[in-house]
Amino acid sequence: MTEWTPLDPALAKVLPTGEPVNVSRRGFLGAASASALVLGFGLPVGAARAQAAGAAPAVVPGTRVPAFLAINPDGTIRLQSPFAEGGQGVWTAMAQIVGEELDADPATFVVENAPTGPDYQVINGKMRITGGSMSVRSSYDTMRRLGASARAMLIQAAAQRLSVPASALSTQPGRVVHQASGRSLSYAELAPHALDLPAPTTPPTLKDPKDFRWIGKPQARLDVRAKSTGKAQFAIDSKVDGMLHAAVQHAPRLGLAVGKIRNEAAVKAMKGVHSVHVLDGAVAVVAPRFWHARRAVEAAQVDWVEPTGASYRPMPATFSTADHAAHLATVQGTEEVAETAGDVAKAFADAGAKGTLSATYHSQYLNHAQLEPPSALARFNADGTLDMWFPNQAPDMFLAEVAKVSGLPPEKIRIHSPLLGGFFGRHFLYPKGNPYPQAIELAKRVNAPVKLIWTREEEFLRDPLRPMAAVRFRGAVDANGMPLAIEAVSATEGPREGIADKRSGEIDPTALEGLAGKSYALPNKRIAQIFVKSPTTVAYWRSVGNSMNDFFYEAFLDELADKGGQDPYAVRLHLLSGNARLTTLLKAVVDLSGGWKRGPFTAPDGTTRARGMAMASPFGTQTAAIAEVSIADGQVKVHDVWQAIDPGSIVNPAIITAQVNSAVALGLSQALIEEAAYKNGERVARNFDGYPILTPDRMPRVHVRIVESGEKMGGIGEPGLPAVPPAVANAVSRLRGQRVRTLPIGTLS
């Protein structure tokens, strides 16, 4: 049972009790029905009416239930989610958690993205983002308490209606029941009567996990029906009265400016064109229809000129990804150490030349390539306010930036956050990587609402990329052939420092996660970074640094096993000796795959195959994967991927299985074929015809085993990816007899 955590004493003057109180029906959920049950958490009792009158008491994030929950007369339960739904299933998980303690079927929930505001900054009480696989694990206790408080209020209302003690009542899904008399009342009936009752003065009692009805069990996704029937609304579907459309043509290299539109008069005369605009590093056309805007802006003949002053990360005209990869492999510089243990120098000396190994590994730039291209709709209103609709993973962060761009105070701005057509880290704040500043500027100029869509070609020009890295490894084995030491020096720029466009004085943890912090008990290790600024803009990408660093480490570990004449499975078991959790997990994936057989071996269909394995520990979750591959006509075929995943504890196993399948698909796509390439400072590919992604015919069978260790809850959305590329690479290396040290693997000779 989860314990009640008291409030910080420093907040006592603002929140005298830290316990739930009721808030009037005119409280936070103004759009909810007047007879909805609305509960407040952590407000002084006297503040309920003050809030109704417009006062704004201090907020402890994640504690005021009226900001989150309403029970409507039709029995549906409206939940304002602090986390965005983009296909990962978080809305369903939120409904399961709240519904469990409220004793309400999650299927009766209607979940929406919450508006901006401090109530929803539930990550460490300071932040609201949907990313880092933090949503469920960071809000689990908060959402449970929210549901339990609502249930207590409903029981209190029923006790008055039925003239019985609250202790004589219990609940069944959606109803309060008096077992002795057989009477019961629905939550919808009770909601109006619960509104004006005092809230419980003691912390809500939470269920014992053994009594869970919905948590830990498969639950149908709440968003599937709307998506399947075309009723789901994404940012790209947003529309308002009087709206104009806009399309842009970006400079081929970031930093270039518009010198002249040679055929501007002809563009203005094209069908449907409302106006033509010069923006920072782009030309835009506004029209009543998007097709007309797009056709016109693509016809614009623009002379691009070099910037005359400072600009954000201008792209050099000479840049190529091939040259940059070579530079990263050999660049010298300060090696900033992130992790060290033992005496690496002595270990290499003791191992001697025969027991040491050196290798350099490479990763590629990657696009996010999410299904929905970026868009933004801006509407300035007659009352001086601004409404904006756009895909985002952090509405409060965007609110602050929209205020800067628009010149309006935050209280005059409303950020609407529709469903996301894909995540992958694309919808964070990226300088020059989001369309909302352009939409704001165009709406100001034309004095009308403007909806701007970046076509895929324009997105590929401005999509900030997953960083590229080269890692120089040295390894040593002992007299028994077991790994004795590993040194890894990564030449790269991490996404956090890249987005900020400056170094903080400390190593960016996102640059080295998956290299540093590995759980193997190596007696000697040294992990370091040589900071090399990327000529491209960079970004978070699904599983962030783990997406490339676990490939580096796990592939080199196999290489080191070969150096010592050891089997990779035996090496991992040896290095995990004493780590019961990871030993159990590794054995679980081997059992799931039918037993470890590295190969090469002949499959029943006559193909020659091999298997590779890898492990990863991203975002508080542990994973182990095995991949089985064959090669035909130079193309790698991945037949099966087995993955065991231990997130500590779970909410919905069906969502976990779906997320692992999704992560396997993206992990394979980047391992086999994806690469964002540049020549002469310009993108080689501007759409999926030149930037292929994994097709359904190349998707393997995926087998998932969930292992609940009972450890602290970890994430789900990203952890299934990092172990996949190295498992595939290790299998391919075994099959070819030649190490794979660079991604994507591509076509093999």
TrEMBL record:
One Gene Ontology term of the molecular function aspect: isoquinoline 1-oxidoreductase activity
Its EC top class is oxidoreductase
Q: Which UniProt keywords apply?
A: Oxidoreductase
Note the InterPro entries from the entry: Ald_Oxase/Xan_DH_a/b, Ald_Oxase/Xan_DH_a/b_sf, AldOxase/xan_DH_MoCoBD1, AldOxase/xan_DH_MoCoBD2, AldOxase/xan_DH_Mopterin-bd_sf, N-heterocyclic_Hydroxylase, OxRdtase_Mopterin-bd_su_IorB, TAT_signal
What Gene3D superfamilies does the record point to? Answer: Aldehyde oxidase/xanthine dehydrogenase, a/b hammerhead, Aldehyde oxidase/xanthine dehydrogenase, molybdopterin binding domain
Superkingdom per UniProt: Bacteria
Looking up SMART domains in the UniProt record yields: Ald_Xan_dh_C (SM01008)
Tell me which EC number(s) this protein carries. Answer: 1.3.99.16
Is Cell cycle there in the keyword field?
A: no
What Pfam families does UniProt report for this protein, alphabetically? MoCoBD_1 (PF02738), MoCoBD_2 (PF20256)
- Signal peptide positions are none
| Residues of the Aldehyde oxidase/xanthine dehydrogenase a/b hammerhead domain | 229-308
Q: What is this protein called?
A: Isoquinoline 1-oxidoreductase beta subunit
